[in-house]
Amino acid sequence: MYINDVHIFTYLILGAIGAVVGQFVDWIVIRTTSKKNIFSKEILQYIKNMKLNYKAIAINSIMYIIITYMFGISPNILENKQLIEFMILVPILNAIFIIDYKNKIIPNRLTLTLFEIGICFTFLYGLDNIYMARDMLLGMIVGTIIFIIIALLGNLIAGKETMGMGDVKLVAVLGLYFGLSVTVALCVLSFIIAALIMAVLLLSKSKKGTDYMPFGPYIVIAAFICIILPKDFIVSALLCTFTLGRIR
Description:
By secondary structure, the protein is mainly α. About 75% of the residues lie in helices and about 0% in strands.
């Protein structure tokens, strides 16, 4: 049985791989927050006493299946660049979500890893299509500019730090993965998601207006949406929303 030209058995295998990688996310979180090497022989002790992180496992497994459905699998490994790229991106974003939510910080080592991988893929895309590589670099530049301006304005208006540089660096590196138009959409989406969630938290009195809430998780959620939904759909939906249907 095939779904979108991919055998169902392949989905099961990649879903299982996603589950294993999802559990590895738990190890990344532990080692990164304690500022220790991720690749260490101590992982054997971790495996021995391992407690399953069901949320990370489920998210990663589901995302791997969705990505496989969206991009399919080609016999030529070079034609699977986008599939491989997002399968690397998803678990790192998963780890960033957990760390920023719990510790209110986005580790530089994770954003640097994303940057290094993103640059490598940008180079590979550039070998086939220089315009695609340029679009990715523009995504990084524009994403950086948008968030720096917002961070500076937010800090100026509030008189305190409302957005850290970790958020700016995260959006910057995501520009390498999504390109210009999707990166702009990702920025808008992250603020919409943040506004909606914050409104619910404030109305339910779970949070106070003076409480600091990390922005990284909203960026990660927006990034997952940008991975799952087609580019044209996201851009059209945002244009339609903000122009009251005049532009579709």
